[in-house]
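To whoever is on call:

I kicked off a structure prediction for a single chain this morning and the downstream step that reads the tokens threw a length-mismatch warning. I double-checked the sequence; it's 73 residues and nothing unusual in it as far as I can see. Pasting both halves so you can look.
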Amino acid sequence: MTIIIANRTCVILVMSTLVVQALLISAPRIARIVSFTFMAASHLILLFFPSSVFRMVIAETTYKTDWLVIIIL
């Protein structure tokens, strides 16, 4: 389950992250390292480069499920 409250750019980033999370379920160890790196990078983009309208904080992301919650401050 995924809860997304964001603008168009952030939705693209979030969907990319969810695709990577889906790969984690059946991916080998190297793919997991790449996936975690990608997720961390997307989190930093959302946290430090928000749009002029939205300021977003990723509250919780786990690699075992598709939960991704974005809170608008």
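Update from on-call: the warning came from a stale cache, not from the record. Cleared it. Sanity check on the structure: Residues 59 and 69 are 6 Å apart (CA to CA).
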